[in-house]
Amino acid sequence: MTLLSRRGALAAGALAGIAPLARPALGQGRYPNRPVQVIVPWGAGGGTDATARIVAAVLEKEMGQPFNVVNRTGGSGVVGHSAIAQAAPDGYTIGMITVEICMMHWQGLTQLTRNSYTPLALMNEDPPGVQVNANSPHRDIKSLADAIKAAPAGRLKASGTGQGGIWHLALAGWLGAMGLRADHVRWVPSNGAAPAMQDLAAGGVDLVTCSVPEARAIIEAGRARSLAVMAPQRNPQFPDVPTLKESIGVDYSVGAWRGMAGPLNMPAEIAQALTAALQKVWNSQEFKDFMNARGFGMIWGDAQGLAAHMERTDGTLGAAMRAAGLVRG
Amino acid sequence: MNAVLEAFGMVATTEVAIAILASAAYGMVIGALPGLTATMATALLVPVTFYLSPIAAIATIITASAMAIFSGDIPGALMRIPGTPASAAYTDEAYALTRKGQAEIALGASLWFSALGGIFGTVALMIMAPALAEMALSFSTFEYFWLSFLGLMCATLVARSSPIKAIAAALLGLLVTCIGIENPGGVPRFTFGFTDLLGGIEVLPALVGVFAVSEIMRAMTAAPPPPIPHRPLGSILGGQWALTRRYQKQMWRGNVVGVLVGALPGAGADMAAWIAYANSKRFSKEPEKFGTGHPEGLVESGAANNSALAGGWVPATLFGIPGDTITAIAIGVLYMKGLNPGPTLFTEKASSMYALYMVFIIANILMIPLGIMMIRASRHVLRAPRAAAMPMILLLCAVGAFAIGNNPFAIVLVAVFGVIGYVMERNGFPVAAMVLGIVMGTMVEQNFVTSLIKSDGDLLPFFERPVSSVLAAMTVAALLWPAFVWLLRRLRRPVPA
What we know:
heterodimer, A: 329 residues, alpha/beta, D-Maltodextrin-Binding Protein, domain 2, 6-stranded mixed sheet, 11 helices, 43% helix, 18% strand, B: 497 residues, 25 helices, 0% strand, BUG (chain A), Tripartite-type tricarboxylate transporter receptor subunit TctC (chain A), receptor (chain A)
């Protein structure tokens, strides 16, 4: 620690010495002049981790300094999200925040909200699809929706993630939009989308709400069908799957998004530089190829875009969580 | 046949050869460092795969994970720190062999039977993938419940203490898994408002604590043990052929258990190793020798965890369902490289699949020479004076635990579990049984509760589904067997009298 701060003091002294000379030449291009840490609140190897790593790799090329991805796991994402919010707002610690930031505070798990960050850019959003077993009698979403309405509460079972997770709220919100109670279809908590899809194929549940890319392999293996996506538009990767709105006229959309953000009170010029660089990343061929290969949805939002998106999500999910009886405190 | 030749052409390139060699060395080193798992070795490779051709990218993952699972046995045998959770089942056994001055037998058996298990798993993947995948897909939460319950019952078998103490230790492990929000209800339990406890207790820090830190504490309180005779390590593979002949049945049983358990999503290499070790003891002619440095269990469970690794690729390649955390990462790489998992991978891209099999075989063969080098390099640990070795091991434990999630709380966990492990062993409670409880507890609870939700609280479906009923019968039989044996003895006794 002493070594670090001594080195920091030396660097600061050196900078102070050359700063007056350097300023006219370097101007705003001075940031970043040392490696930047990119915190990921989820474990190595997952979808968020992979996305953050490709973003960091392209950012490094854009900005000429290493962007090091650091996984800060624990506390179901709370630990990593706190680490981003509590970092020094100097632009040298940023992170990838996920949709959970608009959910956890409703459950009373943390004080952190969307307002604890300087938003930088919205990079990706995956809307949930509605999947059924390949042997299911329901060929389209209308038939399934009718069956849900006709069935007594709790008869049908759905899965896709843990209790209170994003895909659970997607189901609860969709049921609400159809005028049903949030628990009309009973939620079977699972350890993520992959086990839920496996259980769907094994005949354990009636439907699974999870993103279409997560369900893709089982669908392509002919074991399941995707009936609809809860999004404003169809996914160009899966053009045959209609939206809820066009098929049954229910206007409900929600999604799991990922964005880049830093701690509050970051200097405006640094935040702007990062947003501009992130836009170049988003438009780069490498990023596009990666996202398309994984089937991840591409959506762009600058700082204001991400802020507005978070506000909207926070309201929608808050309402869904209240309906599902998950709001605490 | 054309596809096979094409596959050969895909593998026999300089790029693939370099990728295999480099990732093999990398996996060997990462796996041998306590706390750095095979999963982490694979995850850190992902950015590298961006720049590689598809076959080279997959080759790095296959090779690095196979090497890391084997080399996780090295710190387990030499220092009683299981390098990966998959080694935890037989860490005590291997360490006991080392204390007896037979480190080369312990490590040699790990290496030899790991390689054989890996090759067996690959052959099973080649000829039975569709059948195995069909089996995996028929498993619902009801079947998983029985399977994990059976796994939990191994607690009394893996331990050398009284069954009551083993059960108590396993229950303590179950209590530990109750902590956190990762339960079916999604409600925080026993977190006392600490954010760090929300995610629950991770297996690895607990593992490192109860095995390694407790060992260090014991070393500090006990008088120095008789020093291990300073002599060069004997031939590493020399005794293995005799072991292979002697424990042939055990090896095959371990291979088969490994492939079957590995093919089940969510079960994976660590569960395979536990079940294989317990099987080995149950069916052994000399079960009293287990835990005292007896290679029989090592043979079976060492084979099982590496064949499980190949088994995990079955659901991953056919359905995109990860068999374990390593294949979860591999699936992402498969997508990125345009090798989308699904039955079409086996038909349209058959040559890529054959290339993948070849990489598996090459990696497992390469494991033997590289493993020997690694064992020879690490044997010096045994010669280090205790005063120098113990602080280094403690430091490694702390660094390894921190590296999992860059979370300092993991270091606290290692310390806490070190104390728990020390107190337990002092009083004759087997720590292995507690670790088993921690590993299996979440699975048992998750599958039990979700099954009940699905059946609206009805217990009957646990016995109705065909596979489920077989597993239930096995569980009940395993529970009643000791009582039956006791009754039989009682009935027979009066006859000669």
